[in-house]
Specification:
The complex is a heterodimer of chains A (755) and B (283).
Chain A (H helix, E strand, L loop, with lengths): L21 H6 L14 E7 L5 E7 L1 H5 L3 E5 L9 E2 L6 E2 L5 E2 L5 E7 L2 H10 L1 E6 L6 H6 L11 E9 L8 E9 L11 E6 L6 E5 L4 H12 L6 E5 L15 H11 L3 E4 L2 H7 L6 E9 L5 E13 L5 H10 L9 E10 L13 H19 L3 H8 L19 H9 L29 E14 L9 E8 L2 E6 L8 H13 L4 E3 L17 H28 L6 E4 L2 E4 L5 E3 H4 L4 E8 L18 E14 L4 E12 L6 H20 L5 E2 L2 E2 L17 E7 L21 H13 L5 E2 L3 H5 L1
Parallel strand pairs in A: 1-14, 10-31, 12-13, 16-17, 20-21, 27-30
Antiparallel strand pairs in A: 1-7, 2-6, 2-8, 3-7, 4-5, 9-17, 10-15, 11-12, 11-14, 15-16, 18-26, 19-20, 19-25, 22-23, 23-24, 26-27, 28-29
Helix pairs in contact in A: 5-6, 8-9, 9-10, 9-16, 12-13, 15-16
Chain B lengths: L1 E3 L4 H10 L3 E4 L5 H6 L7 E4 L9 E4 L4 E5 L4 H5 L2 H5 L1 H8 L4 H4 L4 H7 L7 H6 L3 E6 L2 E6 H4 E3 L2 E2 L6 E8 L3 E8 L10 E8 L4 E7 L6 E2 L1 H10 L10 H14 L10 H21 L1
Parallel strand pairs in B: 1-3, 2-3
Antiparallel strand pairs in B: 4-5, 5-10, 6-7, 6-10, 8-9, 11-12, 12-13, 13-14
The chains are: A alpha+beta (755), B alpha+beta (283).
């Protein structure tokens, strides 16, 4: 028997390196924020409004504070600093004062020795409300027919886009109004934080699950009336985010309780509270009319888009801009007139969720493309190919698409993916629509095919400089990376060491805890961290490499520009020197910090013109569904997709994003919706807010289109959002194909198909 | 709060007799959710998992009767001998929650909660099950139709518990189908169980989630028996199946709620009845 030494492949860029926390997560030993404890800690809990709209007549906390084990009860009067917070507009009260504007709005918070004591204390707080008729129709907010429910008014933003010649008409016109329901991010790791006050009461430390440590710190500091440097945030284990951790939830409440009691405060939401504790995806109504030539070329788009922002602004203004600037889809269009409104109502606040306004726009424009195809006698693929945007084309905002735009390739490569086999004569019962309910037999099923293609902006827009910071230290052959990038499951903890290994030729890379002791990394959102924090890590590593080359060059009397990294060695490209990085860096240490900024963007003018976005990514989806047309039940059989990724730095991670995004888009297509009646949420639990199960998840066949983007630091585009955007309209189109129904609303309900 | 863990039926019944306001805990799949939502002011809990009499089932072949202990979990009905004896019960069991829930949830719990959406209940009703109850005062047995009184209401006295369910094995065909808006792990929007008894030539169909409690469609059953030879189970006309579905749907009494609409439920339950009948007659 012989033994052979197999050299393990180094986890550099381009390899499917495994997550460092993957094993722990699978085994259940990974510590999420909710698993963090401190000695002597108290529990915090929030009292929330049961009414969507009510005047607060009085709050009596006297009985609650008497309960043994209750340490403090706080209301709006106890907020020492700014009384409100918010990502764009600071319009949301830390605690409601005088009025509550949505069901679930925080009114008070308690700290006590046990969660059960907290529950009793909350029950003992007497709040007298004068219940008001809630305003839940965004059209009323736009028309001004109802009195303002907030001092800032009921219209959160209006943006018009006027492009080209708006008098143009086409021989072919198709129009429709589309509706998108309210989706929840439904991350599995619930909101949780541990706030530990400094002994002098002048500051605190917080371990929290968030998407953006520095933005949280800024808002917490303002509400506490303390300097930012007195607040130190460390990222706890995050179990998903999808936009729902961009806004503050329990951070300020936990901080206030900690400073008031002088003891560590642990807060965590239940699933029910989580539904009320974070923003959701905007429900929207979108009317669109396309004008086209007889051969299907788009001549003009007219659209009116209404987004229900709920009670507070959150990121509604930015979501709306994404919606109006993406309504043309990944198609050329010279003329347009678009009006978009984000309106305030007494519904739950809406804000960031994966896809950020583009999901809603895409359902409308892709449904329209199918209508257009039908009107012109073209196939869904042909209509899209004829209109497909190319690199350099201009958006209806006048912005040229300088990103690589392989739209045609996305469509063609998706189209070339083999369709799933036809259903056999006796399929497995679980594979039929209705699944384990055994509702259907083979003869009841009709198969349909549908398409969706999308464009998604990457990074923040409208002049925002969402830079990222990273530090690299090379010490005796070991690299230590430091950044404040929130790891929410997207895989930056895997990618960052890959970058360091590729740039510096090292093997051992340590990632320091993410916290606020280094500059901001910006938010883990907008498909931006690979580009932004990846760019920062790459930049810091390159600076260290320059120092290392200078060091080696000096020792060997060479020009440092001659040196290169080859695998784990430094080589002289003009001579014979070859020295391992570990040897070359023995006894020395270099440390560099780098800030990556993307190119500046512009605001939109009153006609919606301006280079407001940084970059774009594209994707195509083809859905195959089986529909039980009589019962209205759906099984998504296969999603074929080709996605423009720039460069796949970790193909396995990219596939993870693609499969997860498709499941989330499928959820919006056929089941996920927060249901409300007059501002009252009817299904705040996983019993009735349905997420796709393994049986609902389709086979995914994915092709990664790698055309490195010259603007991107590593050639890689963000891949997080695109997978969930056009899959929803693709599934809706497939249901239309199978049933002949109009399907103008998602989620598609059984009754939309069969009644 | 006290948790009592009796190990025999007599001990359990004694606790029910002695303690006022007892909460029974079997699989906990309903009860613990309600506790977590603070819907109970819990004082005394009697946990039934260790009462061995409740965990067993037996088949009396002389009377063709199977008696299933109230504490038998759904996982045990999904496959194996019970599944062979009662295929419809197995089909219903497979739709209950997730594998974890099925490893804990029990038929007794389904009867105790008595939700109109209880997955096992339409099958029990279509099988003409008898519910065996006990208290320190003695035992009694009720036909399931007399046990289920309304939404989350049943005939259990405060000091009584469900010991077992007895059902006759039948010759013929039985099936179950359930509509939910997800392909697994979903609460029923409408469900139906059909039993075709070829010996007596009778049909029995019971519906879930389309009324205040489980509904038996006696008029549709009667109509089918007079218009179709159930003993033969052959040559079913499409028109007969359609008419049966319509008649079943007319006997449903659904409501609108956040899970669905009355209109859809009425439609769906008719489709299920038609399809079950066709399934039962094609074989």
């Amino acid at each position: 028997m012989s033994t052979s030494v197999v050299r393990t492949r180094r986890d550099t860029l381009g390899t499917s390196a495994l997550r460092p926390d993957g094993g722990a997560k699978v085994q259940g030993s990974f510590a999420f924020s909710s698993d963090v404890w401190a000695d002597n800690m108290l529990w915090g809990a929030t009292l929330r409004s049961p009414h969507p709209y009510a005047r607060i007549i009085s709050i009596d906390t006297s009985e609650a504070i008497k309960i043994a084990g209750v340490e403090t009860v706080l209301t709006a009067e106890d907020v020492p600093g700014k009384l409100t917070y918010g990502l764009i507009d600071s319009d949301q009260p830390v605690f409601a004062s005088g009025v509550v504007r949505y069901m679930g709005e925080p009114v008070a918070a308690v700290a006590a020795d046990h969660p059960e004591t907290c529950r009793r204390a909350l029950a003992a707080i007497r709040v007298e409300y004068e219940v008001l008729e809630p305003h839940v129709n965004p059209e009323d907010s736009i028309s001004g027919s109802v009195p303002p429910i907030h001092p800032n008014g009921n219209l959160l933003r209006h943006q018009r886009i006027v492009c080209g010649d708006t008098s143009v008409t086409g021989p072919v016109m198709v129009e429709c109004e589309y509706e998108i329901g309210m989706q929840d991010q439904a991350f599995l790791g619930l909101e949780a934080a541990l706030a530990i006050p400094d002994s002098d009461g002048g500051g605190l430390e917080m371990i929290v699950a968030t998407q953006w440590l520095h933005e949280d710190r800024k808002q917490i500091a303002l509400c506490l009336g303390l300097p930012e440097e007195n607040i130190r945030l460390t990222l706890g284990g995050v179990g998903g985010a999808f936009g729902a951790r961009e806004d503050i939830s329990l951070q300020v409440h936990a901080s206030l309780l900690a400073l008031r009691t002088g003891r560590p405060i642990k807060m965590q939401y239940s699933r029910e509270e989580s539904f009320f504790g974070h923003v959701h995806r905007h429900p929207a109504k979108i009317w669109v009319r396309h004008h086209a030539s007889n051969d299907g070329m788009i001549l003009k788009i007219e659209a009116r888009m209404v987004f229900d922002g709920g009670a507070y602004a959150s990121t509604s203004a930015a979501v709306l801009i994404n919606a109006v600037t993406h309504i043309q889809g990944p198609y050329r269009c010279a003329n347009a007139i678009v009006d978009g409104f984000a309106a305030r109502t007494n519904n739950p606040p809406c804000g960031a969720m994966r896809g950020f306004g583009v999901v809603q726009a895409c359902f409308a424009h892709e449904s329209q493309m199918d209508k257009l195809a039908q009107a012109c006698g073209l196939s869904p693929v042909e209509i899209r190919l004829r209109n497909a945007m190319r690199t350099g084309d201009r958006l209806i905002t006048g912005q040229p698409v300088e990103s690589v735009a392989p739209v045609e390739r996305c469509i063609r490569e998706t189209d070339a993916i083999a369709l799933p086999p036809q259903m056999t004569s006796s399929p497995h019962e679980l594979s039929l629509p209705g699944g384990s309910g055994r509702t259907a037999d083979r003869s009841h099923i009709v198969r349909g095919i549908g398409w969706g293609v999308s464009i998604k902006n990457l990074m923040y827009s409208e002049t925002f400089d969402d830079y990222a910071t990273a530090r690299c230290r090379l010490d005796n052959g070991v690299v230590t990376l430091k950044f404040a990038t929130s790891e929410v499951g997207q895989g930056f903890v895997t990618l960052a060491p890959q970058i360091a290994r590729s740039v510096l030729g090292v093997d051992t890379v340590i990632v320091d805890p993410m916290d606020t002791t280094i500059g901001s990394a910006g938010s883990t959102s907008a498909s931006r961290q690979t580009w932004m924090s990846g760019g920062a890590v790459d930049g810091a590593c390159r600076l260290v490499r320059e120092r290392l080359f200078e060091h080696v060059a000096q020792q060997h009397n060479l020009d440092p520009l001659q040196l290169e990294i080859d695998d784990t060695d430094i080589i002289d490209t003009r001579g014979t020197l070859r020295i391992s990085v570990s040897k070359a860096s023995a006894g020395v240490a270099f440390e560099e910090t780098f800030e990556h900024h993307h190119r500046p963007t512009e605001d939109l003018d009153e006609n919606g013109q301006g280079n407001c976005h940084v970059a774009f990514a594209f994707v195509a989806h083809r859905a195959v569904v089986d529909v039980d047309t009589e019962l209205g039940l759906v099984k998504v059989v296969q999603i074929a997709t080709a996605q423009d990724v720039g460069r796949a730095l970790n193909p396995l991670s990219v596939l993870g994003q693609i499969e997860g995004g498709i499941a989330q888009g499928l959820g919006l297509a056929v089941m996920e919706e927060i249901l409300m009646v007059n501002g009252i949420v009817k299904n705040p639990s996983f019993t009735d807010y349905l997420l796709p199960t393994a049986l609902d998840a389709p086979d995914v066949v994915a092709i990664l289109i790698e055309e490195p983007d010259p603007q991107a630091p590593l050639g890689a585009k963000g891949v997080g959002e695109p997978p969930c955007i056009s899959v929803t309209p693709a599934i809706a189109a497939a249901i239309r194909d199978a049933t002949g129904r109009a399907i103008t609303r998602v989620p598609v309900r059984p009754s939309d198909i069969c009644l | 709060m006290s948790i009592h863990i009796p190990t025999s039926l007599d001990d359990a019944l004694a606790l029910l007799h002695e303690l006022p306001q007892v909460q029974l805990l079997a699989g906990g799949t309903d009860f613990m959710v309600e506790v977590n939502f603070n819907k109970h002011d819990v004082h005394d809990v009697v946990a039934l998992r260790r009462v061995t009499e409740l965990q067993q089932w037996h088949h009396d072949e002389t009377t063709n009767t199977v008696t299933i202990g109230a504490g038998v979990v759904y996982a045990e009905m999904e496959h194996g001998e019970l599944a062979t004896l009662f295929p419809a019960l197995a089909e219903a069991a497979r739709t209950v929650g997730s594998p974890q829930i099925r490893a804990a949830g029990t038929l007794g719990g389904n009867l105790g909660t008595c939700s109109p959406a209880g997955d096992g209940l339409p099958v029990l009703f279509a099988l003409d099950a008898v519910v065996n109850l006990a208290s320190h005062r003695g035992t009694r047995s009720l036909p399931i139709g007399e046990f289920m009184l309304g939404p989350k209401r049943n005939a259990l006295a405060q000091d009584e518990l469900v010991v077992s369910i007895s059902m006759k094995t039948n010759s013929g065909w039985q099936g179950y189908a359930k509509v939910g808006t997800r392909n697994a792990m979903v609460i029923s929007v409408a469900s139906a169980s059909l039993v075709l008894d070829t010996v007596s030539g009778t049909a029995r169909i019971a519906l879930g989630s389309v009324g205040p409690t489980i509904i038996r469609c006696t008029q549709a059953e009667q109509w089918l028996q007079t218009h179709y030879d159930i003993s033969a189970r052959k040559d079913l006309d499409e028109a007969i199946a359609t008419e049966f579905g319509l008649r079943v749907s007319q006997e449903s009494r659904p409501i609108d709620d956040h899970r669905s609409t009355a209109q859809y439920r009425r439609h769906a339950v008719g489709v299920l009845a038609k399809r079950l009948l066709q399934r039962g007659c094609v074989q």
